[in-house]
Write a structure and sequence with these properties.
By secondary structure, the chain is of the alpha/beta class. It contains 28 helices and 31 strands. A hairpin with a 5-residue loop joins strand 17 and strand 18. It is elongated and about 115 Å long. Bound molecules: adenosine-5'-diphosphate, aspartic acid (ASP) and magnesium ion (MG). The site of adenosine-5'-diphosphate has 20 residues, from strand 13.
Length: about 800
């Protein structure tokens, strides 16, 4: 049973360890391997650096470490005698360590040997504490039996000698154990001794896992348990992927691949010794011992998941060896790999084009400089003659691996992988897939690592739910309602549709706030007030910088400035849903460019609510055109505001009053002149005409208005003041109309020439509609659209319903968002 740093790092966890171990010890002999208290190894290194640099503050850091251990002992050992004994042995170690640090401080020198001696104290201390705490615990000295040898300046395990020594040490432990009823051996992990010089060494950072595996293998243990701070081996690093979850079973091969590519939960060399002995590994959580954890073994029950997990290595450098002389030349690869091996540099990824004139190899950033240097030296002659180029070195990259043994039976995995990355705007710099097909690994720009992991986790259905990340701009009538609708639907969508709507950004005219973990919608107004001051460019840059996967920008403003951001967002693979009509009705070329960019990037630009709020008008026109129909005529009442006004107007309700009511009841735009001037209807007609496949600009639309032009100049206050002057004239005309049993309707029309549909005309006009016409009875603020097409000719298609209002518009925006989620 190996317990990691966090498992021995706090009073709570170490008491849990005690219970876990003592329960197990009741069933049979147990060997416990412990790490240093979490963070101590890092602290020992950092403090030694301070001492070396002559910084006397190292003493404070040192005493803080002493305190931490003392406090731990005080809290967990009740028995006075035991506690005093333990303090003695721990303080003895600290005294030695204090002298070593002082030496480093005085002579300003920190050799590797000294550093190795210093870091060994972490595990030595923790093993003393655990041995004293556990009933029948007996500490064993790992340096007596874990032996390393020096190869190319690196400490590597002397397997044969170690095996022999472990067996011997534990044979005598068993004798002692039976004699003195000591059943639990406690071993410090990580540390070792050089077989020749007998100096203290170690197995590398994270090496306690390895210590445990070596002992398990040598003693033919029944099982190796790795106790850590997560519920087992997970589909991805839970610190990066919030929705990662525990894998029940993994094969040794799968676990090895995932660990080699950075799954830190198990130190990579750990698996091999137990794998060849066919000893299963169980990964368990000290903080949640009831959780079954992960079982790693030879053959696993066939679950049909093609991909089991994803892991990654951050600091990757790609070194590319290129040159024409490489084509068909035998031995270039041999020279590359021998050269690197001689220098002790390990290569974790290789990709070679079949033309053979370039080989790319992935190494860790810290090895990059040395790797380039030795390769340049090796190929110096070829480089000089120009047959080869100097090594091309690209740093700041990350390597990602997707792993699963079932991959080989499942076609299309690579296709899905690259398709998913492409749609998210992530380019793959190099890739490799072994013929064993348990792993596809590839290199991306380091800045795209988090995003890559997220989209892949999502698309391979490793996640229990799909995530859509949403930015909402504007929290007025529509935006506020939309947030409310999302808030109430979140739970349902998560449970029934496996979709998580994650609102990662909210903005209004004063502030904006971004949070990739999702903003709490119960509290968003307060959170927003604490956000950044509103600034369009700043917001745009921050959103782009977030580089978050599967994201959509939702514009619920009427702002021209916000509409200018769409192009940038689409170019960065962020879909756009606009309730704002400005972009779709702007000049034709910009409109086309937005659509084209969305198409090129594999994202969406949607604006269904630009016309008829929640009514399915744009979508219907798109569907008709896509299936080969031709729109010949559009006749529509597209202004809920104007329809409301002309329905409200009556003998006792003058025109000016109807405008006021429209504004009060939030049917009109914040500035009602946008409605009265026909601008709003013109925008909508332009959008519909364009969707129907015609190229039109706002200026092309003929206008027949009912409020004189002078009313649209000057301030909004002037406008309200002057408006009643129109009342008398309206009342006179209204009386005539009433007598003729007609009604005013503000109608938008697009009409194509029957014989030559490329010729068409658009207009908006206040029309007098007779009784019996479909437009006559249109109630309240409703909208209506009549579509005459080649297929709907004699009886046009009719779409009718609420054309304004917060709830239906927000629902229309919501529907657009859902269409992007594509569940
Ligand atoms: P310990 O101190 O117990 O050895 P480590 O910090 O070395 O613990 O390893 C556990 C950590 O590994 C987890 O807290 C988690 O953040 C990280 N990790 C990375 N990838 C994975 C993965 N695929 N499954 C589980 N944990 C992972
Ligand atoms: N304490 C060592 C480290 O932090 C070894 C380990 O925890 O496994 O690297
Ligand atoms: Mg570890």
């Amino acid at each position: 049973m190996k317990f990691g740093g966090t498992s021995v790092g706090s009073v709570k966890s170490i008491l849990s360890l005690k219970e876990i171990v003592e329960t197990e010890a009741g069933r049979g002999p147990v060997v416990v391997v412990v790490s240093a208290l979490n963070g101590i190894t890092d602290k020992l290194i950092a403090t030694s650096e301070m001492a070396k640099n002559g910084d006397s503050h190292y003493r404070d850091e040192f005493e803080a470490m002493v305190n931490r251990h003392h406090q731990m002992i005080d809290a967990i050992i009740q028995d006075d005698k035991k506690r005093v004994d333990l303090f003695n042995s721990v303080d003895q170690l600290f005294d030695q360590l204090r002298s070593i640090y002082y030496g480093v401080f005085l002579i300003h020198d920190l050799s590797e040997k000294t550093q190795d001696a210093i870091v060994s104290y972490g595990e030595r201390l923790s093993s003393h504490i655990v041995a004293a705490m556990i009933k029948n615990g007996m500490r064993m000295n790992a340096r007596d039996f874990i032996r390393t040898e020096n190869k190319e300046g690196k400490h590597v395990l002397d397997t044969e000698l170690t095996n022999k020594l472990v067996k011997e040490a534990f044979a005598s432990f068993r004798t002692k154990a039976t004699n003195a009823s000591k059943t639990v051996a406690v071993v410090p992990g990580f540390i070792a001794r050089d077989r020749d010089s007998h100096e203290t060494t170690n197995l590398g950072r994270g090496g306690s896992d390895y210590t445990a595996a070596i002992i398990a293998a040598a003693l033919d243990a029944e099982i190796l348990e790795i106790w850590t701070d997560v519920d087992g081996f997970m589909t991805a690093d839970p610190k990066v992927i919030k929705s990662a979850y525990t894998i029940n079973e993994l094969s040794y091969v799968e676990a090895m691949e995932l660990c080699n590519f950075g799954a830190k939960v198990i130190y990579p060399p750990t698996i091999y010794p137990v794998c060849i002995k066919n000893i299963p590994i169980k990964v368990k959580n000290t903080f949640n011992p009831e959780h079954p954890g992960t079982l790693i073994k030879d053959k696993i029950e066939d679950d049909n998941k093609p991909i089991k997990g994803i892991s990654s290595i951050k600091g990757t450098t790609l070194i590319t060896v290129t040159g024409l002389s490489m084509v068909g030349v035998i031995g270039v690869n041999r020279r590359i790999f021998t050269t690197l091996a001689d220098r002790g540099i390990s290569v974790f990824m290789v990709s070679q084009a079949s033309s053979e004139n370039s080989t790319s190899i992935g190494v860790r950033d810290e090895d990059a400089e040395a790797a380039a240097e030795v390769l340049n030296a090796e190929f110096a002659k070829e480089i000089e003659t120009g047959a080869m180029y100097p090594m091309q070195v690209e740093s700041g990259l990350a390597t990602i691996a997707i792993v699963g043994e079932n991959m080989k039976q499942t076609p299309g995995i690579a296709g899905k992988l690259f398709g998913t990355l492409g749609r998210s705007g992530i380019s793959v710099i190099a890739c490799a897939q072994g013929a064993s097909e348990t792993n596809i690994s590839f290199v991306v720009d380091g800045r795209f690592l988090r995003k890559s992991l997220n989209v892949l986790h999502d698309s391979f259905f490793l996640s229990e739910y799909k995530v859509l990340n949403i930015f909402i701009c504007g929290i007025g009538t529509v935006g506020g309602m939309l947030l409310e609708q999302i808030r109430t639907q979140q739970q349902f969508l998560m449970q029934s549709r496996r979709l998580k709507l994650n609102v990662v950004g909210i903005s209004d005219v004063d502030n904006f706030v971004l949070d990739r973990d999702g903003i709490d919608l119960d509290n968003y107004e307060q959170i927003l007030r604490a956000g950044f001051a509103a600034n369009t460019e700043h917001m745009r840059d921050e959103i782009v910088k977030m580089n978050i996967f599967n994201s959509v920008f939702v514009d619920c403003t009427a702002s021209r400035q916000i509409a200018t951001l769409y192009q940038t967002f689409l170019e960065h693979n962020i879909s756009v849903v606009a309730a704002n009509k400005i972009a779709a009705s702007s000049d034709y070329d910009s409109y086309l460019k937005l659509k084209q960019t969305a198409r090129d990037r594999g994202v969406w630009f949607r604006y269904e609510t630009n016309v008829g709020a929640g009514l399915p008008i744009i979508g219907t026109i798109n569907d008709l055109c896509n299936s080969g129909d031709k729109i010949l005529k559009i006749e529509a009442i597209l202004s809920g505001t104007l329809n409301f006004i002309f329905n409200e107007i009556a003998a006792d309700v003058p025109f000016s009053e109807t405008v006021r009511r429209a504004k009060e009841q939030r049917y009109s735009e914040p500035d009602p002149r946008i409605d009265l001037s026909g601008t709003d209807v013109i925008r909508k007609l332009v959008i519909l005409t364009r969707e129907a496949g015609y190229k039109v600009e706002q200026d092309d639309v003929e206008k027949h208005l009912f409020v004189p032009d002078s009313y649209f100049q000057g301030s909004i206050d002037d406008f309200w003041a002057k408006l009643p002057e129109l009342d008398a004239d309206f009342e006179a005309r209204r009386k005539v109309l009433e007598a003729e049993n007609k009604r005013w309707r503000f109608v938008a029309t697009m009409e194509a020439d029957e014989n030559d549909p490329s010729i068409f005309k658009t207009s908006v006009a206040l029309k007098e509609v007779p009784y019996g016409h479909p437009f006559y009875g249109l109630e309240g603020s409703n909208n209506i659209v009549l579509l005459t097409t080649e297929r709907y000719k004699e009886y046009p298609m009719l779409i009718q319903g609420y054309g304004a209002g917060a709830a239906v518009t927000a629902a229309g925006v919501f529907a657009n968002i859902m269409s992007i989620a594509n569940i």
